[in-house]
Amino acid sequence: MEGIAAAPESLAGPEWLELVAPDTGQHGALADDLVALRTRLAARPDGIEDAVPPRARLDDLRAELRRRGLDGFIVPRADEHQGEYVPRAAQRLAWLTGFTGSAGWAIVLADKAAVFVDGRYTLQVRAQVDTGLFEPLGYPETTPDTWLAANLAKGARFGFDPWLHALADADRLAQACTKAGADLVPVDSNPIDAVWPDRPPPPLAPVIPHPLELAGEAAEVKRARIAKLAADKGTDAVLLTQPDSIAWLLNIRGGDVPRTPFPLSFALLRKDGAVDLFIDQRKLTAVARAHLGNGVAVQAPAALAGALAELGASGATVWLDPNSAPRWALDRLGSGAKIVRDTDPVALPKACKNDVEMQGVRAAHKRDGAAVTRYLAWLAQTAPSGALDEIAAADRLQQLREETGAIRDLSFDTISGTGANGAIVHYHATPRTVRRLAPGELYLVDSGAQYRDGTTDITRTVAIGTPTPQMREHFTRVLKGHIALAMARFPVGTTGSQLDALARYHLWQVGLDYDHGTGHGVGAYLSVHEGPHRISKVANSVALRPGMIVSNEPGYYKAGAYGIRIENLVAVRPAEIAGADRAYLEFETLTLAPFDVACIEPALLTDAERAWVNAYHARVRDEIGQQVDATTRAWLDTATRTI
Fold it and tell me: What family is this protein classified in (predicted)?
């Protein structure tokens, strides 16, 4: 569900209307509009469609740029909040190029254009984008700024939307333009919007209070805690631009973007703990207003410009995150403000879940694990016939999650890929690309759900029929990396980047690797991709801390043949090691669902690795077996047999 109707699935029925309707008549009318639009958008699962062909879109944009006296323009896959999760109205990159991945940029010049994607989308970009119009380039091998420096003509006027680029990003663009002898020009309005017919409206999903029994800490306590960080740094106010940070801080949830339960908004947190919340007030029910309380002053989004200008005029010191605050905000503060550039102060406290949040997360994973186990049992029975396709398989998994009665939404669009499609890291099955699950293939399903008590994300790779020896070897090497990370114990202060090689080692030994990170942070009924921590080759200075949730998902992708990924979510916790010379940490595995033992080559496992698999499967039997029906339990007993 996207656009205006981008509310969590369970909030699109009577419960949702109940939250909206009790207010004024405008809320009742809004609810009718939301439901109607949700029905209309259900027929457009890919989100962005348009009758205008790709070449005409590019021609129209170039004509608009000429009209504005611009020689080029950059189109990021971003909205004003610089986040991964964006509403339909901000899907400008998808509209222009056809590329629907979660990260990327396009640059359009008068005589050439390029689209930049990372290793997750190497195959997808060529499948979705007309390479006669846009040259696909790999990132970070080629970055937009280095390409600009090499391709911009001297004296060119290159445009960018200051709402869609964070401070650090805008600085890099400016340096590239200077190197090329060109000028970087901020636009007052986005030229894509001027040529995009039927652009969807901004979202208006209602704000929902997140109760203390799930949050584990009152919003006023959080506000005081983060405000002290701001005061200790000598700042008068923090501009919060990340919607998940604001949702966590104020204990609110929403549905403005697909699959992620937060409302789009901006906030100024003052050093005394007061908050100015800039949000479309039509999203606020009477219940939500009462929940926010007197410490939160609600203002219209348009009032943010004046509030920033006022801070600048008073000479205030303002905290901005250079990687998420839009360049537009810096311009509004003007030269009078003193700027402190540092990471969003909410990010780290939000990442370290408290005991109440962790209890909820564990409960969500048990519930979700039972649904996934039921799915795997059904798949084992259904898939070998060859009658099942990727879309039907994904639909069945969603149906089983819905049968829990607790799901609010998926946590991302399910990746359901068999055979060669499984080798596309972020593949999304469509009627045009869908394949049937056929014997002799590997099937990869990466999925997750949003529950009020937790967010899940799990990937399983299973063989349809009998896997080949090569499939078994590759699967087992990925599994060995997964186990190495799951079993890791590490000193306090260790970063995810220092652990990343553990997951890749057994692939590296035979000349294999994968082009994505090994682990991303996960929120508690918030974003399925959450910072500031991660496990990846890319250097990260954020040490892992107790309460952090991170994915453990090594993989291997054989282009044109199959993909393998094995993902569990894990939580960081203290490790008790007798005789340790300092404090150590370890991972608690949260995800509970069996691996496909038919894909495991036991001879490649050490005794310790084999023991880990057997212990994990025993835990799955004990904790999940009692939640499933007898038929599924019988399958589970076989699926988790000792190896």
Answer: Belongs to the peptidase M24B family.
